[in-house]
Amino acid sequence: MTVTLPRRGTMVRESWLVVVARNSVAIAAAAIFVAPFLFVVLMSFMTSDQALTSNLWPTTWHPGNFVDIFTKMPMFDYLVNTMTYALLATGFMLLSSIPAAYALAKLKWRGSTAVFVVVICMMMLPPQVVTVPLYLMWSNAGLTGTLWPLILPMLVGDAFSIFLLRQFLMTIPGTVLDAARIDGCSEWQVLLRVVVPMAKPGIAATAIFQFFYAWNDYYGPLLYTSEDQANWTLSIALSQFKTLHHVEWNLVMAATLLVMAPVVIVFFFAQKAFVQGVTLTGVKG
Amino acid sequence: MTALLERPASVADKPPRRRPARRWRHRLTVLSFMAPALLGIGVFFLYPLLAAVYFSFTRFDLLTVPRWVGLRNYTYLFTQDSVAGQAALNTVWFVLILVPARMLAALLTSMLLVSLKRGGGFFRTIFYLPALAPPVAATIAFVFLFNPATGPVNEVLSWFGVDGPLWFDSPDWSKPSLVLLGTWAVGDLMVIFLAALLDVPKPLYEAAAIDGANAWQRFWHVTFPSLSPVLVFAAVTGVIQTLQYFTQAAVAASVASGTATTGGGISSTFGYPENSTLTYPLHLYVSGFRYYDMGYANALAVVLFVVAFGVTVVLLRRFRAFTGGAR
């Protein structure tokens, strides 16, 4: 679809008053959605003295906060921990979940629907239900206190990613795959040479979701690393920032911005894949 | 259509007529794709579920072996643990308030976007942005914004002569504050609603307009019916998500409670103020990992599972399209 589709206003001409009112509402709503970000940015540039007042605008701009968060707290180590978790989890997830999603979307076998229903149940299961047995398992393996209990399971598939990839792969026409099969491709060759190149946007969206999931994850790192500060992620560090440094809102807000920034930057570069992915988690398809 | 590749007579659904060697090769192929995921389902889903049921009948503190106590954990849960009752009520409160609030916000913003003549893309990005903010970061930002002493919200309210409440520090206002946070980050739901709204056939609106339907009638008789599957889907998945509501409540409590957490670890502040933000999953976490009452934590887990599973079944029954139609 290209640009000039007749919008539905073409039939009923709206008075300019309605148009103005509607745009005013949009602008007011946008202001409300943006305001929290604005106040966070302003606070992150205040000096520690000013942060104790209720002034909204920095009297002197103090970018030093962004340096202080790295010197007053091992933020860089937390960043490395978080990146390790997010990158390994994403890589492992792709290795294990793409083949499974392909088998569920494009191969005919007895029990495939049943397995897919189990995958959905697994995706819907509140993580707290299975927390204690899994914690005991990792404790016996001597891996509690590290991030491995969050990374290693990705080697054997992630329910949400399998679900999302499967929904993407369903949209690839079967005739394309049959053509490849007639040319003598094995199923693995079909997957690697035909399906993966065609499904790149879907795979990208799934990878971005997995990366953000790990980046944002609070429950997992809290469960496994809260006792061992050396393995904290940014999420845990951020939530504990205040307790270590009293009420230094300017530093906390600088750290908060640091955690938000990568997500927002990735979003602007991959907006299309992202929105498509969010929509596919909905009822469509 | 793999049928294309097979010999005509014996096609499709009658496996016995297929040559056994070929059948086995097909099964092995499928297995080679599915093996890791099947292992994952077994080790990280089925096993811990069964283990949780077993542990829920025991007394277990990690140090000694589990001791069978029958239904004692469950009788304690349902008859004696008043905190569990409070936590369950908190979670029900969120299900009843947070889910509809988010749906309403998503509906209003998405309909506003559809009605805009220009700038739709710009406003869509603006409205979506908060949903991107990592939950921990967003929660901390809100605790700062709403902090009673120096926070911008109460400062702005004071310009209008309004004496703002204590927000995250008040047992009465802590949950509404979290609802505001959840409603701010409504973008993911909004994008889903927006896609559904754009799918409503345009001629329907035009026909309704010709028949003299006003804006409200067009919404009620055209938009709403077309949207209802998505609304039901959003409600059901919203309930499932809210049953596991943990991060925002935990972080809000631990940041708002301030500096007094010298001992007892991170979880010692959960529920602040006065257990008003202690959701059911938080109570489960505290029972297991603060008090090391693993048997009891698993009893809480089994009850949570039964409820969540019931809701999931509703979802699966309502949305056959979700699972059906392979190929």
From TrEMBL, chain A:
An example of a Gene Ontology cellular component annotation for this protein is:
plasma membrane
Keywords assigned: Cell membrane, Membrane, Sugar transport, Transmembrane, Transmembrane helix, Transport
Q: What is this protein called?
A: Multiple sugar transport system permease protein
InterPro entries named among the record's database cross-references: MetI-like, MetI-like_sf
Give the family from UniProt.
Belongs to the binding-protein-dependent transport system permease family.
Cellular location of this protein? Cell membrane
Against Gene3D superfamilies, the record matches this protein to: MetI-like
GO annotations under biological process?
A: transmembrane transport
Q: What is its main location?
A: membrane
One matching Pfam family, short form? BPD_transp_1
User: Which membrane topology describes this protein?
Assistant: Multi-pass membrane protein
Q: Where is the ABC transmembrane type-1 domain positioned along the sequence?
A: 79-270
Domain of life per record? Bacteria
UniProtKB/TrEMBL annotation, chain B:
Subcellular localization is given as: Cell membrane
| Assigned GO CC terms | plasma membrane
What keywords would UniProt list here? Cell membrane, Membrane, Sugar transport, Transmembrane, Transmembrane helix, Transport
Which Pfam families is this protein grouped with?
BPD_transp_1
Q: How does it sit in the membrane?
A: Multi-pass membrane protein
Supply the CDD domains for this chain.
Answer: TM_PBP2 (cd06261)
- Residue spans crossing the bilayer: 28-57, 92-114, 126-146, 178-198, 219-240, 296-316
Q: Which residues form the ABC transmembrane type-1 domain?
A: 88-315
Coarse class of the protein's main subcellular location: membrane
- InterPro entries referenced in this protein's UniProt entry, alphabetically: ABC_transporter_permease, MetI-like, MetI-like_sf
* Record family assignment: Belongs to the binding-protein-dependent transport system permease family.
Q: What is this protein called?
A: Multiple sugar transport system permease protein
Per the UniProt entry, what species is this protein from, by scientific name?
Answer: Actinophytocola algeriensis
